[in-house]
Amino acid sequence: MPPGRESRGAGLVPPRTRRYIGVVPPWTDPTPAAALVARRQRLLAALGDAPALIVAGRPRARNYAANVYPFRAESHFLYLVGRALPRAALLIDRGRSLLFVEPPASDDPLWHGEIPGFDAIRADTGVDDVLSLERLGDVVGARWPEVATLPANDEVTAAWQSRTVGREILARSAAKLDGADAKLADAMIALRLAHDAAALAQMRGAIEVTTLAHQAGARALRPGVREAAVHAAIDGTFLAHGMSPAYGSIVTVNGEVLHNDAHHNVVRDGDLLLVDAGAETAEGWASDVTRVFPASGRFSATQRAIYDVVLAANRAAIAKVAPGVRYRDVHLEAGRTIVRGLRDLGVLRGEVDGLVERGAYTVFFPHGVGHLLGLDVHDMEDLGDRAGYAPGRTRATRFGDAYLRLDRDLAPGMAVTIEPGFYQVPAILRDATYTAAIEGDLDRGALARFGDVRGIRLEDDVLVTAAGAEVLTRAIPIDAAEVEAWMRA
Ligand SMILES: [Mn+2]
User: Fold this and answer.
1) I need a labelling partner for 116 at 20 to 30 A (CA). Which of 153, 177, 462, 475 fits?
2) Alpha helix locations (H) across 321-409?
3) Is the pLDDT assigned to residue 59 strictly greater than 70?
């Protein structure tokens, strides 16, 4: 459905009437203790008597120890504890949840203000008890070999955690999960694949701020500005609402560079600006949205033609999202729609089926149609493909399809992105490795007419529901005419 006024979600006032940066910001409430208790109980039920330790991780130094990057706790810890407590560890054992935290140093109140006491943390998180981290060894005793853990985010942190908690914690890069660790990972995956109401409240909050951010970016855009100015409007909106970027915001006139992190280019009249930016709440819940804006405020005819092909792929893929549908088939539906659209524009020749079989879409759409979304923008990819790929399924070997990050049967409560694209990547188009299979079907003269389109990606966040799908990002205009109107608003 086009994102008209009537299609906006309950509680979302149309952005035109809601310019409340610095007035009454939508500030996502912390996940209530009762919801955290319920998550831990579900994990307990899955693990039985097996003890599990989930660590928060530690702040990482930028240069010297006292100057650290903003602390971002491990996502499994955030899922179960909801608060970013540096160096803390949650022990699930014998039916109880024990949270071990580092007691404040005597001069911490000087540098950091008053620190919440153990009782306050217990009430806030609903754990059975909060204890000093140094007691963890005594509580676990001789049972360390039985305690399951999950890999930490780097080797330094893993080594630090191992020393602190008393058993080896694997660095993510070296992780080969087995035994109790694998069982814990699978239990966490099962829990986190189906988002509960509290998770969805966080994600909806992130999306609401992302909506404001994209609009702020669209309003900052005009010929002559630098990408950096639009980037600042977007990330500034996240910060103004107590959130942060869920990943490095992509704001670029070179949309064909998939993960472009440069922001120095001056935007010219006639450019398209690709914006892939999503907010993350204080608890780590993410959104992930891509839109494409014409610098002049109007798409050219050629830009509009390709835009509508990508939009058709976005809509066809979303229309396919429903419980029981294999996500790979959603990806293929997007690819097929891209092929049909390019054939109708004369860029490709021949039958759609044959073109799809030969991978014609991968030349222009060389990535997967999306991924899981939740606490991580690629949710649970800290566990590799264990979360994204159902047991027995593995990545395709063909270029393009091999980048598909998710191949599960969809189920209610899953959140996924749908993000087809069209890119003219010189490194692909000039290399027969990628184009040989379709060279005879590719009209390069026709393609050249679309030279003012370097990259277009249209990404929505979609919740799988019992009835089918809910587009969580529907308040962000995607229809080309509505995007143009939004820029003028
Ligand atoms: Mn994405």
Assistant:
1) 153
2) 327-344, 352-357, 360-364, 385-388
3) yes
Query: Per-residue pLDDT tens for 367-419?
Result: 999 999 999 999 999 999 999 999 999 999 999 999 999 999 999 999 999 99
| Centroid of ligand 1 to alpha carbon of 456 (angstroms) | 13
Report pLDDT for 26: 58
Under 8 Å CB-to-CB from 19, ≥6 apart: which residues? none
Q: How many whole angstroms from 288 Cα to the centroid of ligand 1?
A: 5
Predicted pLDDT at 165: 82
How much distance in Å is there from the Cα of 290 to the middle of ligand 1? 8
151-186 burial string, b = 16+ CB within 10 Å, else e? bbbeeebbebbbebbbbebbbbeebebeebbebbbb
Q: What CATH number is attached to the domain comprising 145? A: 3.40.350.10
Q: What is the pTM of this model?
A: 0.93
| Cα(458) to centroid(ligand 1), Å | 10
Summarize pLDDT for 184-199 with one digit per residue, the tens.
Answer: 999 999 999 999 999 9
The answer on 308 and 321 residing in a single domain is yes
Residue 335 shares a structural domain with residue 374: yes
Cα of 393 from ligand 1 centre, angstroms: 21
Report pLDDT for 164.
83
pLDDT averaged over every residue in the chain: 92
Q: 419 C-alpha vs ligand 1 centroid, how far in Å? A: 7
C-alpha 450 to ligand 1 mean position (Å): 25
* Ligand 1 (single-atom ion) residues, CB below 5 Å: 288, 417
Confidence class for position 13, pLDDT limits 50, 70, 90: very low
C-alpha 374 – ligand 1 centre gap (Å): 11
372 Cα to the center of ligand 1, angstroms: 9
Could you list the beta-strand ranges (E) of 161-307.
Answer: 244-245, 250-252, 272-276, 279-280, 290-294
Question: Phi first, then psi: what are they for 459, rounded to 5°?
Answer: -120, 125
Calpha distance 379→420 (Å, rounded): 18
Query: Which domain range does residue 359 map to?
Result: 197-488
CA of 429 to the centre of ligand 1 (A): 24
* Residue 18 binned pLDDT confidence (cut-offs 50, 70, 90): very low
Distance 200 CA to ligand 1 centre (A): 17
